[in-house]
Specification:
Glutathione_S-Trfase, 4-stranded mixed β-sheet, about 220 residues, GST_superfamily, Glutaredoxin, binds glutathione, Thioredoxin-like_sf, single chain, GST N-terminal domain-containing protein, Glutathione S-transferase Yfyf (Class Pi), Chain A, domain 2, 8 helices, 4 strands, alpha+beta, glutathione transferase activity
């Protein structure tokens, strides 16, 4: 069992945090979530934004208050064996994860954009999402199309991809909606298999049980 306890601070939405929630659950660590009052609590965060992970020792004494989504994810994934110790093997996962993050970021930027920039982002989303699907399908096939990206167990990129495709399976906003169909995993057999494998993981049972009890989180606030 872990020496550490964790508090995840974020808003009560999927947003940037669903991969992290999956990682913390799959790791079987002691973690809870808090939703700070915003913007009242903004200046109390080390970098002025969320997510933040408070890492405490077994006695509950805070050791580190960590910011930046991808850094937090990798700290947890490395700590609990969801990223391999070998740097090259880890980099293979991280490049796939960053590609997912980039397409997600384009979507977020699109939600705040108007006019010409908005049209540019629709084109960018289409190009990048098309590339992403071909890269991820190739990676899943390369691993024997067994529902995992690497080997035959759950890993960091499995969880990140699960969160990503689940996010986009909710109805998309405005004109990006027509492009979001590119990421409809029910039409991509390799990704459907991944989604089923993640949902069948016993280590994630608390995550899926909580989702049933609490209902799925809102995909985004930016309507
Ligand atoms: N680079 C940061 C970005 C974090 C970020 O933009 N967080 C947003 C929520 S998704 C936030 O805190 N917004 C409220 C604010 O900045 O006041 C990360 O990846 O963690």
């Amino acid at each position: 069992m872990s020496q550490h306890r964790y508090v995840l601070r974020y808003f009560d939405i999927q947003g940037l945090c669903e991969t992290l929630r999956l990682l913390l659950t799959a790791s079987g660590v002691d973690w809870t979530e808090e939703h700070p009052e915003w913007p009242k609590e903004k200046t109390n965060q080390p970098m002025g934004h969320l997510p933040v992970l408070v890492v405490s020792n077994a006695d509950g004494k805070p050791e580190l208050v960590l910011s930046e989504t991808l850094v937090i994810e990798r700290y947890i994934a490395r700590e609990y064996g969801l990223l391999p110790a070998d740097n090259l093997a880890a980099a293979r996962q991280e490049q796939l994860r960053d590609q997912l993050h980039d397409v997600g970021s384009t979507h977020i930027e699109y939600m705040h954009s108007t006019g010409e920039r908005s049209a540019e982002l629709v084109t960018k989303f289409e190009q990048d999402a098309t590339c992403l699907v071909s890269v991820h399908v190739a990676a899943l096939r390369h691993n024997g199309n067994n529902g995992h990206y690497f080997g035959d167990t759950l890993s960091y990129v499995d969880l990140a991809a699960y969160a990503f495709f689940k996010f986009f399976s909710n109805a998309g906003p405005r004109s990006l909606k027509s492009k979001i169909g590119l990421l409809d995993y029910t039409r991509i057999p390799e990704v459907s298999k991944l989604m089923a494998a993640v949902e069948a993981s016993s280590s994630l049972e608390p995550y899926f049980t909580a989702e049933k009890v609490n209902g799925p989180r809102l995909a985004t606030r930016f309507k």
